[in-house]
């Protein structure tokens, strides 16, 4: 098993405490995996510019904890899905970049099959490297345009990717009959919601509280109308 660097290992108490607050208690192996993932982001960002956030402590709150906050709402949504027996849930993370929230979901929800799609080959390659390094058989990086992907995926997610109109338009064909969109946003995107076509129904806007992050966060839940 990979072990986190001394720098990220120091964040372990903060990570474990925040995860408890969020209702996502982590095993020791999961905490190590997330901290090793932080190391990988730092290492690759030096060459591939995966993220604008360079400070490791900021990466912890703005990336890891921010993505962790989406795990309990996702679990609730999947529990309501009533998937066929023996069929695991499939999640597509659009415009995944460094793999947020897809990688965090793959670590915390080993029963969910996570595909992270990005049009930038280096970013998709990074996700593949993370899957190998962290031994995550339920994670894959896909180099493609989301419009070219066929589903069905049970949940299609994005974080700071595009407007709600573009996100739902580009990924519509990846949804199944009972699938949902999970869009992670900052402030309540009133104007973006107003711009959505009648074919997209917003059924819930869920406020998130991220430990250590003094900023508004929410999830916009949508489904085809």
Chain-wise SSE layout:
Blueprint: H1 6-9, H2 12-22, H3 28-48, H4 56-68, H5 71-81, E1 90-94, H6 102-108, E2 113-118, H7 121-133, E3 139-143, E4 153-159, H8 164-171, E5 175-185, H9 190-194, E6 200-208, E7 217-224
Parallel strand pairs: 1-2, 1-4, 2-3, 4-5
Antiparallel strand pairs: 5-7, 6-7
Order of helices and strands: HHHHHEHEHEEHEHEE
What structural category do the secondary elements indicate? alpha/beta
Order of strands, main sheet, comes to 3-2-1-4-5-7-6
User: Major β-sheet, in short?
Assistant: 7 strands, mixed
Q: Compute the CA-based radius of gyration.
A: 16 Å
Q: Roughly what fraction of the amino acids lie in strands?
A: 15-25%
Put simply, the count of helices is 9
Low-confidence stretches: none
Residue share in helix: 40-55%
Average pLDDT: 92
Q: What is the terminal separation in angstroms?
A: 45 Å
Beta strand count: 7
> Which shape, going by the Cα principal axes?
globular
Fold and architecture overview:
The chain has 225 residues and is α/β, with parallel strands linked by helices. Helix content is 41%, strand content 23%. Strands 3-2-1-4-5-7-6 form a seven-stranded mixed β-sheet, sandwiched between helices. Helix 2 runs parallel beside helix 4, helix 3 runs antiparallel to helix 6 and helix 3 packs antiparallel against helix 7. The protein is globular, with a radius of gyration of 16 Å.
List keywords for this structure.
7-stranded mixed sheet; alpha/beta; single chain; globular; 225 residues
What is this entry, summarized?
With 225 residues, this protein is of the alpha/beta class.
